[in-house]
Amino acid sequence: MAKGLDDDLAIVRELANVLNETGLTEVEMERGGLKLRVARQSQNTFIEAPQPMQASPAPAAAAPAAAPAPEAPAAIASKGEVVRSPMVGTAYLAPSPGADNFISVGDMVKAGQTLLIVEAMKTMNEIKAPRDGKVIEILARNAEPVEFDEPLVILEA
């Protein structure tokens, strides 16, 4: 290996060690003309919101209610045309904090119209409508992570 590549790999290893030691999910550095970003794939953690107290206590033998299961892909697809995320990133429903969302349920959209943004590696990627249609559901949540091929929006079939 070339000396420069060995040095670059050593820097990447050092940054990876920083991630492991600190618990951070990503670290970025720039030195001279070299800019490096090392990120750890994070697992989504879901925390259930506290439920309101019941008026009367449940019987002791009753099992706790299961959390609702996510909709199956076939159930989502049967509602209409699914617009999916082309990448892993963070979904943003508006062009900037405090601005109106690009779309709302019930809106009519034109082919090529921006539905939302997926930010990946500090790049804002506009997700555009594949065709004219009516927005019947917005599955993405603002400032929440999305996975590759995750359903984001459903347009009327």
UniProtKB/TrEMBL annotation:
This protein's pathway: Lipid metabolism; fatty acid biosynthesis
Magnesium listed as a keyword: no
Domain Lipoyl-binding: 80-156
Superkingdom of this protein's organism: Bacteria
Annotated Gene3D superfamilies: 2.40.50.100
Annotated Pfam families: Biotin_lipoyl
Entries under InterPro entries matching the protein: AcCoA_biotinCC, Biotin_BS, Biotin_Carboxyl_Carrier/Decarb, Biotin_lipoyl, Single_hybrid_motif
Keywords associated with the record: Biotin, Fatty acid biosynthesis, Fatty acid metabolism, Ligase, Lipid biosynthesis, Lipid metabolism
Function, in words: This protein is a component of the acetyl coenzyme A carboxylase complex; first, biotin carboxylase catalyzes the carboxylation of the carrier protein and then the transcarboxylase transfers the carboxyl group to form malonyl-CoA.
Name this polypeptide is given: Biotin carboxyl carrier protein of acetyl-CoA carboxylase
Organism, scientific name: Parvularcula lutaonensis
GN (gene name): accB
